[in-house]
Write a structure and sequence with these properties.
The chain has about 60 residues and is an all-beta fold. The protein has a single domain, classed as Rubrerythrin, domain 2 (Single Sheet). Helix content is about 0%, strand content about 55%. It has a four-stranded antiparallel beta sheet, with no helix packed on it. Strand 3 and strand 4 form a beta hairpin. The two termini are about 20 Å apart.
């Protein structure tokens, strides 16, 4: 079996509502060598049923 790449890191993409409460989150595998800055992606939020901005936060892993 192959080994996991050293530059890959699991990050969490979270969306927070206007009160600061997390409504939904995605797990994402990020290559830190090619993407050193924080990710901000527009993804679908099934709670609000809209495409909204998700911001990278650290994973608990």
């Amino acid at each position: 079996m192959g080994q996991k790449a050293k530059h890959n890191k699991t990050v969490t993409l979270q969306h927070k509502d206007e009160n600061g409460k997390v409504t939904y989150q995605y797990q994402f595998l990020k290559n830190t060598k090619s993407l050193p800055e924080k990710l901000q992606l527009k993804k679908y939020n099934p709670v609000t049923r809209k495409h909204e901005l998700f911001v990278e936060t650290k994973s608990k892993n």
